[in-house]
Amino acid sequence: MPGADTILVLRTSLRFGARKAIVTAAGVVCGPVIWGALAGLGMALVISRLPIIYSAVALAGALYLVYLGIGSVRAARTLWRRRSESAETAPAVVSPPHSAFLTGLMTNLLNPKIGVFYLAVMPGLFAPGDVTIWLGALLGAIHGAIGLIFLTAVAIFAAYVRRFLTRPTVSAAVELACGLCLFAFALFVIMETVAAMLA
Q: Among the four residues 20, 33, 99, 199, which has the most C-beta atoms within 10 Å?
């Protein structure tokens, strides 16, 4: 099921175009490489065994999703106010490439479930040998390559559809929908984390 990473790439493609969305996707898929390497070092085990660390990373991720959601809602409000303007007269939105990459990377790194996933999967893949930082990074790179194919397809499809969604009213609705999805993901993470802390 598409998650926050997919919504982020979709939103970026609709707002900035396929190239910027693919840069965002590249940031997203660097996350599994880092998580894989950290799992090889045993960090995923630490995160899974210490609920306070898991909760801190999860809540930081939720707050980051809220931040991204607020950006989408603000963009929707701006587009709604410009709904009488044509696509040609509306000012272009500018964002530096490194910003797109870092946004994708942080969205993935602030998801502790990825680290726990690597902890659960890696021992079965490499048993009876020990998981090393290099094996962990390799598994992350394979995971990232598959993710990059999917997210690139999302970015290209969204950029193609973008040509039909240049009216500010439609763009505002899409931004608002993406923002609400990001808020929903953040709320889910917060509720799940709080429930785990109270259990």
A: 20
